[in-house]
Amino acid sequence: MTRVCFMVLLLCIGLMCPLVTGIFMDRLASKKLCADDDCVYTISLARAEEDYNASDCRFINIKKGQLIYVYSKLVKEDDSGEFWAGSVYGEQYEDHMGTVGYFPSSLVSEQHVYQEANKTVPTTVRNLQKP
């Protein structure tokens, strides 16, 4: 009986609390350079010169020697770092292929440029309501 009362109490408290709608993170930049308006075409192929462990869900892990397709380059602002967006490439990384995220541009070297990133596109933030 005590368990049931406790569960009902937890349920009531849970219903009274507002739902969490998202985690708010600082935007890395307000603009990015892309090859097209939607930033879906590959700009270049880069090779990781060092390992990088993602600090949050916006970033991807990269391993030294890994190839990365680059889709956009954030425009550096004030004291922010320089980040590019891309996805890993290669059969040995098959479980991570297709996952797009940011990584520090200082940790990679461009191996091949497919097309120039000459379109400046604003970065977007989902319109989430604060709790």
From TrEMBL:
One of its GO terms (biological process) is cartilage condensation. Coiled coil: none annotated. It comes from Ceyx cyanopectus (Indigo-banded kingfisher). Gene3D superfamilies: SH3 Domains. InterPro entries: OTOR, Otoraplin_SH3, SH3-like_dom_sf, SH3_domain. Residues 1-22 form the signal peptide. Keywords: SH3 domain, Signal. Residues 41-113 form the SH3 domain. CDD domains: MIAL. This is OTOR protein. PROSITE patterns: SH3 (PS50002).
